[in-house]
Structure prediction request, 460 residues.
Amino acid sequence: MFKNATVYLQTLGCPKNEVDSEIIRGSLESEGFRICSDPEEADIVIVNSCGFIQEAKEESIQTTLSLAAMKNGNKSRKLILYGCLGQRYRRELKKLLPEVDAIFGVEEIDSLVNYCRNEKTIEPEGDRSFAPRYVEYSQRKIATDRPHAYLKISEGCDNHCSYCAIPGIRGPLRSRLIENVIKEAQTLVDSGVKEIILIAQDTTSYGVDLNGSPELVRLLREISRIEDLKWIRILYAQPRGVDEKLIREISENEKICKYIDLPLQHISDAILKRMNRKVTKRQICDLIERVRITVPGVALRTTLIVGFPGETEADFQELLDFAQEVRFDQLGAFAYSREEGTKAYGLSNQVPAKIKQERLDLLMSLQSDIIFQANEKRVGEEFEVLVEGREAAPDSRWVCRSEHQAPEIDNCFLTTGLNLKAGDFVRVKVVGQEVYDLVAELKEPRRSGNLTSRALRTSG
Prediction:
């Protein structure tokens, strides 16, 4: 019934979900399905959901309900919910969302594809155990006009931070075999990708479950041997896993972006202990100092949580003072979300929602000032940037990134120029700023994909 049908795929949540959606897309296209960009034209609508925190759960449910409204009584159209939300709340969602025809959790892509083929697929019921090893899929289809690609190196997490539901949603750490990661990286570069971004729940734990010790440095060295690959970026590097060996590799390896994403979550020792982060303020401060000494010009990004249970005014002020002193190049933050199934759910001294929001606003206002001041200092400096594409507006400018900026989460460069295309490396000079973004003029209209970032970088 569904053979050769048209499919609309909506992705919510993090880059790991984006990779899963690309696998779903590739798997469906290999079976003859056509992916479309308009849900009203689709025979099958798939929502790849997020279930990490309350805000994400609400977005997933509202998106699903909005797409369900398009069915308009057409029983032949199918609505499928996939991913983290389905994994976490399968039983509850069957009652809450009767409009949904099928629910699949993580690692159930094959079942989803079989369902779309209208085979006699038994839809999973209730809780489901996780595969003992990383589940590999042979099909993946990325956006052809995008010069970067995320590369998932492991699934799950063994850290068990007290606030985090991920171990329950995606299971324990399962690292990919290094040869499979390298094979996919080569395929991505062969398709035109210029930047590979390594992702996992904790990239620094890669390989621990396979060999008893971290293998991230070895993986970085292997990937950097791919000839036409220009940049390698590391996201989600847990601070206690960033050792001297990794820092040195980032400093010395020409292909690794001088950019480290350290999700610190907090700085107060009392809160770090309640979060089960297994790291102290002194260790964090020492790490930041070592990184900045060893990797000159490095860009540091972090994620912080405000309003964790028991966070006092003094704890929050300590966090503000820390952010002011360190002056992160990029910083994201969110108010603590009380998630059932986590150890923090039952902690005493839950912070009222109003106070959490006030603290979040103060922190982000501080970071806004820091970014504004940093951007002002960059006026007149030159950078090598990767052209991502155009703004979605009339007379649009080119959106570009330096090695110090990750896509979708960080600020960017905006410039004008002729004969550019996504994937070009060009040199620009900063002439101003616009909100968070840097406005730049093109210094080299010719493409500079054959130049290394070290040759053109003039400052951090």
Notes: DSSP finds 14 helices and 18 strands in the chain. The two ends are 56 Å apart (CA to CA). The chain has three domains: 6-116, 148-377, 379-456.
